[in-house]
Amino acid sequence: MKKYIIYIGVLAIGLVVGWLLFSPSSNNESDHSHSEAETNQMWTCSMHPQIRQPEPGDCPICGMDLIPATSASDGLSAEQFKLTENAMALANIQTSFVGKNTLGDNSIKLSGKIAENEEANAVQVSYFSGRIEQLNISFTGEEVSKGQLLATIYSPELYAAQQELITAASLKESQPDLYKAVRNKLKLWKLSDNQINRIEESGEVQENFPVYATVSGTVSEKLVEQGDYIKQGQPLLKIANLNSVWAIFDVYENQIDLFKKDQEISITTNAFGNMEFKAKVDFIDPILDSRSRTIKLRVVLNNKEAGFKPGMFVEGRVIGIVSNTDELLIIPTSAVLWTGKRSVVYLKTSPDQPVFEMREVSLGNQLGDSYEVLTGLNNGDEIVTNGAFTVDAAAQLQGKKSMMNQDGRKTMTDHEGHSGADSESSDPNNSHANLYERVNVSKSFQNQLKAVFNDYISLKDALVKDDTKKTKKEANRLLGNLGQVDMKVLTDNEVHTRWMALEKELRSSASSISNASAIKEQRDHFKTLSLKLTNAVQLFGINEKVYLDFCPMADNNKGAYWLSKEEKVFNPYFGDAMLSCGEVKQIIE
After folding, report:
1. Are residues 310 and 281 in the same domain?
2. pTM for this predicted structure
3. Average pLDDT, integer, range 531-560
4. Arithmetic mean of pLDDT over the chain
C-alpha cells in the first residue's frame, strides 16, 4: 500500500513539473522572446550602411545581398559616431577649443598667423638683359648664402660692352674720358673692379656672366626658369630671411582703442605645446579692412631656431586690459561647412576618444580668418578645424546627421520610423563603417586610378576656361580610362565591391557631362563626379597630394567641392566670372 502511495506521489510531482515546463504560456513566452529577437535583427548593405531593413534581401541601391547588422552602439547616442585613430591620422583631422576673445583675467585673446618679415626680404634681380644659361636654384625653400652663385647669363649688350672696354683701354692715354665712361658703364651692371680689370688685361670677351646672391636667406619664390630671356632689372628670385618673422593678428573694430605700440603680448602655438613667447606690439595698421571690420596688429618674433613657419596659426594674449564691450565667440573659417543657408561644424564630444557629432551654428560677421558665432556653440567646446569634410563624409556613410543629411539615416523600407542608432556602422572597427579608412591596393591599381584622376583635372581645367567642347572631350577620355581599370587586381572581395559601386557612379556622372550641350548642365554633373572621385581618392590613394577645394556660392549658393593638383584656387563652377572664388578645405596626402 505504501509503495502505491509513493508511486502516485512521484507521478503527481512529475505531472506538475511537466505542466510548468511545457505549459502553453511558457511556450508562448519562449516563442515571443525568439520572435522579438528575430524582429530586432536588422539587415544592411556592406556598400550602403544607411540601408536598414528588418529582413534579408537585396540592397535597393546596388542590388547586393544584405548582411546582418550588429547592434553594438559603443555607448554612443543616435547622433554621434566614432572614427579610428588611423582614419584621423590619414585625413590629418585636427581640433581646437572654441574660445571667447575676452578672457576672465582682464586679458584679450587674439588669433593670427605667422608671416614672412617683409623688412628682411629681398628680391634678387638681373642688372643686365640676356638669356639664363644656367640656373643653380632647383626649388623653392632652398637656402642661399650671400655671394653664392645663383645663375649665369648670356648678354649680347654686355658682350658688346666688353669689346668697347678692350678698345677704349688701348686709347686710354689719348681718350681718358672715353675709357672712364666705358668702365663706369660696366660698373652700373654690377661688375666688380676685379672683373673689369681681368677683361681689360686678358683682352678676351666673356660670353656668360655670373649672378651672385646679394643676401642670405631662403628662396621663397622662383620667378624664372633656365633658358628664359630676361630684361634688365627683372626679378629672378625672392629671398626671405626667416631669422625673424611677423605674427599678424586681427583686432576687431570695437577693440581698436585697447591696443598700442610696445604693448607686451604672450604668443602660443600648437607647434610648441604650452610654451609662451613674449614679444611687443611693433605696428598697428592705421587702415581698417572694410570687409572684415578688423585692423592688423603686428609683432616681430626671433626665429633663429626656425621653429615658426609662415602660415602657422598662433594665438596672442594681452594681459591687463579691461574691456566693457561684448565678448565675441569666434571659430576659424576652416571649421565651417556650408550647405545653402545652413552652416555646420563638427563637435568632438569626448576628450579622450575620436567621437563626433554635427552641430548647426548661426554665424555673424566674418572677422579675417574667423567667424563670429551667434548660436550653436559654447565657450570651451572642441571642434574640428582641419579635415571637417572628411568627418562629414564619415557621418554621411554612417547614416548620422551631416551637412547634406540634416535628419540622419532614412531607412529604405516601410519602417521609416525605425532609428538607425544601433547600426553596424556605429562600430568604428567594422571595415564597412568608415569609407575613408585607406585600404591596401596594388600600385598598379593606384596608377590606373591616377590616370582617371588626371583626366578629371583636364576636365576641370576645361570648365575653368568655359570650354564646353573641351569638357565633352575630356569626359570621354575619362570614360575611356575608367574602362581600362583592371578590377582583377583587387583580390579582396569587399574592396572589389566598393570600387564597382564607385565606378558605376563615376561612369554615370562622366557620361552625363559628355552628353550635356550646355556648360551649366556640365557643371551640375561635375559636382557629383567630384564627390565620387573624392571618395575614390580618399579610399584607394593615388600616391599624390590632392587639394579639396570648396566654393560656397556654387550650385545656387548650396556650395560645391572639387579636386585640384595645386593650392591656388581656379573655380570650375564659375570660370572667368569668379575665377578665384573658393578655398582649400582639405589636403589629401
Report:
1. yes
2. 0.43
3. 86
4. 79
